[in-house]
Amino acid sequence: MANREDGIKKKILIIGAGNVGTSLYRALSDKLPGKIHLFGKQDYSHQDKRFILKEDYTNFLNPEIVNPVESIIICVQDDRIKESTRSILLFRLTDKNIFHTSGAKEAAELDHLKSRGAHVASIHPMQSFAHKYAAPEKWRDIILAFQGNEICFPAAKEIADNLKSKIISIDEEQKIGLHVAGVMAANYVVAILSVAENILVQAGLDGISKNDILQPLLQGVVDNYKDHPAEDILSGPVKRGDINVLRRHIQYLRIHKSKDADLYLTLAKVLLNNPKFQIPGRAKLEEILDKYS
Fold first, then answer.
1. Which of 90-123 are b and which e, b meaning 16 or more Cβ less than 10 Å from the residue's Cβ?
2. pTM of the full predicted structure?
C-alpha cells in the first residue's frame, strides 16, 4: 500500500463493500496519499485482510469518520443509492463532493443532498468488476465518465489520475447512451459466450476446457480492437460473403433443435445491415438469409 504520509493527504469515504467499492478502495489505497475509509454492512471478518487494513474498514459511521472527508463515493446497486445516503445524513456534508458510480442513474439521484450543502456528481467506470478487491490494474486506462456539478470535477480528476484512468465529462443524455453501449459490449458479449459454450457441449466437446477453446479467439478480437474500429476487424463467413457456410451453420443449429439458430441469424443480419462493414454480395446474402427467418 502507498505511504499515506507522502504528498497532500486526502480523506475519502467509500460506501458499499461490493465488487466496485472494494476494488476502488484497493486501487486508491495503493495510490492516493491520505485516508481511505470503506463502509459496508458486514463486519471486518468478512473482508479480505490481504487488501484492507482493519482501521480502514467500518460497518458503523460516526462523526470522526465522516466529518473530515472531502469526498464520498457511493458504490451500491442503482436502486439502493438514495437509501445508502441515510447513513451519512446525520453528519456534516457542507462542501463535500458526493459521487455515485452508477452508469444508468444520473447525478440527480443525489440531488436531495444539495440542501445539506453537498456537491453531487457521478463517476462511472467503464469496466467490469466480477470480483471483490480486483487488482488496481483493472482501473488503468479505462474511462471514468463524469456527469454532474462541475465543482466536483477537480476531485474526480484527481481520483482518475491516481487510478491511472481517463476521465471524460458528459451530459445526462450521453450518460445513458454510454451505459447502453457498455452493457452491449460487456454483458451481452458474456451472453454470446454462454451460447457458444452451450454449442460446444451440444457438439460433445466437453473433454477440453471451453475457456481453452474460446478465450484465445476472443483475446484475438480484443487485441485487434485496441487499435482498430469494429468495421476493420470483422472476420468469418459473413465478412467473406460465404453463404454456403452460413447455410450449414443455420441447418446444424436447427437440426439439433437449438434455440440459438434465430440468434445466429439475427447477428448475421446486424452485420449485413451495417454499411460500415465491407461485405461482398451483401444483397444476395440478405435475400437468402431472409428465407431462413
1. ebebeebbbbbbbbebbbebbeebeeeebbbbbb
2. 0.87
